[in-house]
Every structure is written in C-alpha cells, then in structure tokens.
C-alpha cells in the first residue's frame, strides 16, 4: 500500500489534500479503504453548497460487500463533487488518489487530527 506523502489522512480512512489558494481541499478515500470495501457500485456524496462537519458523516459508499459511511475530515462548504465517480463508482477502486476523488470543500476552522502518510500506513496495517 502506497499512500501519497503530500496528503493527510483520517482514522476513518479518508484523505485530504492541502488547501489551494482559495482554501479548497480535495477529499477521497484511501486505497486501504477501497480494497476493504471491495467493488464500489454506488456513491452518495454531499450536495454542492452544503456544510460538512469534521468527523461527521456526509455520504455513503456502497459496495458488493457492504454500505459504509463517508466522513469529512474537515468542516466547511462543499464546492464540487466528482461527477465522474457518481457515474462510474469503480473509479474509487481503480484510482482512489487520482480520478476517484470524491468532493472538494472550502475549509473553515481547523481539521480534525489528521495523520501523515507514514503514520496512516502504520495505523492501517494494525
């Protein structure tokens, strides 16, 4: 499992990019989570313009094995959802760190406690 060093990770297995110049970060699930879920067949994402709260559920991922809640690692306003993933949920499995990103959020406040790539890898392997 290779987790990109530039991202930060939650213990709920979401990743977060550094905010851009507008304060917007991209969020997805990790390769570990995608593998644990199995083949993702449906994605329910928060609506653009809605507010999310760090550590709270904001959507669902349905796979051939189960339904899992999606958590936001930060508080803020949803600025964009990945329509490609809505139309082709398998992107979550095939490219969790690239084309399989889930949504973008304009971050307000401080994120919940996030892990570095190395700390997340150690956490996920235990």
From TrEMBL:
Keywords: Lipoyl
Keyword Cell inner membrane (UniProt): no
CDD domains recorded: GCS_H (cd06848)
Keyword check for Metal-binding: no
UniProt cofactor(s): (R)-lipoate
All copies of domain Lipoyl-binding, residue ranges: 24-106
N6-lipoyllysine modifications at: 65
Lineage top rank: taxon: Bacteria
Free-text cofactor note: Binds 1 lipoyl cofactor covalently.
Signal peptide start and end residues: none
Family: Belongs to the GcvH family.
PANTHER family reported for this sequence: GLYCINE CLEAVAGE SYSTEM H PROTEIN (PTHR11715), GLYCINE CLEAVAGE SYSTEM H PROTEIN-RELATED (PTHR11715:SF3)
Its biological purpose: The glycine cleavage system catalyzes the degradation of glycine. The H protein shuttles the methylamine group of glycine from the P protein to the T protein.
Subunit and partners: The glycine cleavage system is composed of four proteins: P, T, L and H.
Record's protein name: Glycine cleavage system H protein
Organism: Streptomyces niphimycinicus
Gene coding for it: gcvH
